[in-house]
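Hi V.,

Quick status before I head out on leave. The structure for the redesign project is tokenized and pasted below; the design run finished overnight.
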């Protein structure tokens, strides 16, 4: 079981940037795909970005393409989400997740149900 801890959320203005971090412990981080999801009030949890075990394949939801960047540092057991040009509609709780069902999966999966380790989440609020 991998423990995940997010940090870096906060209250910002439209157009600002934030970088979220997710520190992993208790598992072999470098073998597994990681993802960031978000959930706004009254909405379903949705994928923001996913990255495979070595960072060579990445997937983004359309609404964040060109603004957000997911990356990972396997030496530090950390996955990042750089968020630029933030918009009020990006306001949500952001969750880090790991898919530990299969090591060295070539492409990251994109469904929330496919991820079996979750952090507690960090709030991102973007004011207009």
């Amino acid at each position: 079981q991998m423990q995940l801890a997010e940090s870096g959320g906060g209250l910002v203005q439209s157009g600002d940037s934030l970088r979220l971090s997710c520190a992993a412990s208790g598992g072999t981080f470098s073998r597994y795909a990681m993802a960031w999801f978000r959930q706004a009030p009254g909405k379903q949890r949705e994928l923001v970005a996913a990255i495979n075990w070595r960072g060579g394949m990445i997937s983004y939801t359309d609404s964040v393409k060109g603004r957000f960047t997911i990356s990972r540092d396997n030496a530090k057991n950390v996955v990042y989400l750089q968020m630029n040009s933030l918009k009020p509609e990006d306001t949500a709780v952001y969750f880090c997740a790991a898919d530990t069902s299969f090591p060295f999966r070539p492409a990251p999966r994109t469904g929330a149900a496919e991820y079996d380790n979750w952090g507690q989440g960090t709030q991102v609020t973007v004011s207009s």
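Above is the designed sequence. The mean pLDDT is 97.

G. will cover questions while I'm gone.

Best,
W.
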